[in-house]
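Hi P.,

Sorry for the delay on this. The queue was packed all week, but I finally got your sequence through. Input first:
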Amino acid sequence: MDIELIQQILIAALKTGTPLLLIALGELVTEKSGVLNLGQEGMVLMGAMAGFAGAYYTGNLFLGLTLAMVAGMMMALLFGVLALSLNTSQVATGLALTIFSIGLSSFLGSSLVGSTIPGFNSIAIPLLSDIPFIGALLFNQDILIYFSFVITACTWWVLHKTRVGLTIRSVGENPHSANALGIKVIKIRYLATIFGGAMAGMAGAYLSLSYTPMWMENMSAGRGWIALALVVFASWRVGYLMLGAYLFGIASILHLVMQGFGFDISPNLLAMMPYLATLIVMVLISSDSLKQKLSTPMSLSKPFDPKLH
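Then the structure:
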């Protein structure tokens, strides 16, 4: 395997892993606040549809990106009203949101199925893009990939180095103590949930405006579910999350790589690997003892009513 081939595989993994990273970052912040939103898959689809429709009808990719994020935030807000204000089951509400969004995105985007547009182009950073091997890998990508690097670093810094991050983590660990200190628990959870929706919407925009600049039904292909498992797989740590996203990216293209090398293995078997890994992780985290080892936020998915405290 020569260096150029390795470089191309890593570039493909970077592109494939970016939407997973964006979704998972939003879900990580959401879960750090104690909210479990299983509606990520639906929010990604709504973002992809809204982003593509906006860019298709206006010719402006950045307007499409903005609309995608707004669509994700609106779906997250709907989840918040039901799960945070009305105290419905977070698990059931998230699943319902995904089912609703899959149907709504298909209905609203039915006239655009198969349509294409010119997507975001790669932007080579002067000098840095000329560095051997890593230049093309890290410094000759589209603006959404660059943004994913920035937002990952910012998320780590905010969660671990700022008062805002401490507040988010305190709400997720012990909302009763946080409430006693005067922290608006529900407000913080709303903001974290809406941030998760914005990231899911951006991931959807990446799929329909950059990765494959077109609209097709269910184009998220289960990435929202993979990202949910990825958060747990990374033990709610931003650094591991980034690494895990790109590892899942490699797993997603593994069947193409193996076929290229002539391995006599069913491509369908290899293509299912990311989803099999997701299923295994979900089964393992059902163990309470493992949850503690993985540093699960103590109040994750537990409702909180400030009127009762």
